[in-house]
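Summary for the lay section of the report: proteins are chains of building blocks that fold into shapes. Here we show the chain for 4'-phosphopantetheinyl transferase family protein and then a coded description of the shape we predicted for it.
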Amino acid sequence: MPLYKTITVSPTIKVYIWKIEESLETLKSTLPLGEGQTHILTPHCQKRLDSMKSDLHQRGFMSIRHLLAEAGYTDFDLYYSPSGKPHLHDGKHISITHSYTFTAIIISDNPVGIDIEKQRDKILRIAHKFTPIEEYYTLTSSEARIRKLTYVWGAKESLYKLYNQEGLSFLKHIDVQDFEMDASQTTARVVYNGASSTYAIYLMEFEGFTCVYGL
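The coded shape description reads as follows.
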């Protein structure tokens, strides 16, 4: 089974990454049941799965349940707030992400957020919506701009999930400190409704994808 990577950030924070290679039926048939359970999904999540039109989205959804199993949980340990934010019944914090053939979760004792993005030139067209684009003109190649902008988008997306406040703007309220392309960590600040918070941002790349998580 393609558990792609696990990262122990600290004794209380762990990241699990899955590379989606199996069929939907394989992902369903190999998912372990929890003690006393007769179904692999809650009724709510089964309804969500059935409503998905894309096979890749369905496989991504099921692969996340495999990541939960790697962390010692089942789908029945997970619930969603009205805003769609995932939570665990035991009080630990969780964040979930899916992009094409990769999924990931991060679990922590404190609020966290994670994002995976495929590196695509589309990021160049939408960059002005989430960051001052003129800051990136010093990069000499479009490939470098794509990589760095994807990092910045991922950092802001991870903090958006962590902060979980309606009205939070990527462009106006979240600022990512500049970093070198080979950096594995930076910081970011959220200034919203008169409050200011600073977070550690962790950066990595693999197989044309960018993964960012914020603590």
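Put simply, here is one thing we learned. The chain has a mean pLDDT of 93.
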